[in-house]
Amino acid sequence: MSEKTIAVLTSGGDAPGMNAAIRAVVRAGITSGLNVMGVKRGYNGLLSGKLGEDILGMKLRSVSDIIHRGGTMLYTARSPEFNTPEGVQKAADNCRKLGIDGVVVIGGDGSFRGARDLTGAGIPCIGIPGTIDNDIASSEYTIGFDTAMNTAVEMIDRLRDTTESHDRCSVVEVMGRRCGDLALQTGIAVGATTILVPEVPYDFQEMIIDRMRFTQQAGKKHFIILVAEGVDRDVSEFAREIEAQTGIETRATVLGHVQRGGSPTLRDRVVASEMGYRAVELLTAGKSNRVVVMRDSKIIDLDITEALAMKRTFNKELYDIAHKISI
Fold first, then answer.
1. pLDDT tens by residue, 183-226
2. Which of 191, 193, 200 is nearest to 248 (CA)?
């Protein structure tokens, strides 16, 4: 009986810790007696099917010295072609030609839908959640989230120094188009006066202007307003209106893609390693169409279709706590 071959790819937005997950998949696979291939640029690599160019044979040393690096050594991309039935079938056919018996997909919900479709075309897949937004409903934690928060905190701490020096207000936008977890936890960590997230409706006068005036009466002279990018207003507009109503010099800052980069934190390295190892265990056991997730601080696996149907629950209690203590 010939050795089985698995492949690993990263898809969608990059997240710190993806390299740690790749490393775990490669080494767990090889030590389990599997051949392991690395697929470059997500599903586009499977569509290309070019061995030695987009699809590489991986050895133990192929993943040396990457656990501490941000980004992904396999690169990543979004693939409109793969989002078609023809694209999925082409990728599945290429897997069969290359002798790939299973694929580990590291990414977000869109990547998991691709894994589900590829499984449906006959190629067993396991998903691992990698996204800085922490926006995957089935998992309480996603690879990259902790690093992104720590990066945002470091940047805002630096910004606070100049904000305080000039008695200014800083309106800071962090990532999170559909999910406010990054804004919420970062906002608590930096003592933001107000935190705005997509999940909670806000009143501009009450949540920003009135809170600033109240804290001014208690002696506060500088302010940080933290806004998730999914909130329906541009931070520059927020800044202009705050300055117009309060007379306080106000600047807008968009942290942007700096939040995606950087060396992953200990937590991201460890969780990624655990999840990568579990993914290989599942493929070795003949499982497919599963996603590795964290639930109740434990690494478990769920059916991908079931996982995709889950609805996220925003931590409103923590949100309320944040505003009660940030006055």
1. 999 999 999 999 999 999 999 999 999 999 999 999 999 999 99
2. 193
Residue 1 has pLDDT above 70, yes or no: no
| C-alpha distances in Å from residue 288, one per residue of 137, 178, 319 | 20, 28, 37
Can 268 be counted among the known catalytic residues?
A: no
Give the tokens for residue 312.
Answer: 């996220």
pTM assigned to the model: 0.95
Q: Which domains does the chain have, with CATH numbers?
A: 5-144+264-309 (3.40.50.450), 148-260 (3.40.50.460)
Distance (Å, whole) CA 215 – CA 26: 53
Tens-digit pLDDT profile for residues 104-148? 999 999 999 999 999 999 999 999 999 999 999 999 999 999 999
Catalytic residue of the set 133, 146, 181, 268 = 133
Query: Across-strand partners of 227?
Result: 173, 196
The predicted model gives 312-317 an average pLDDT of 95
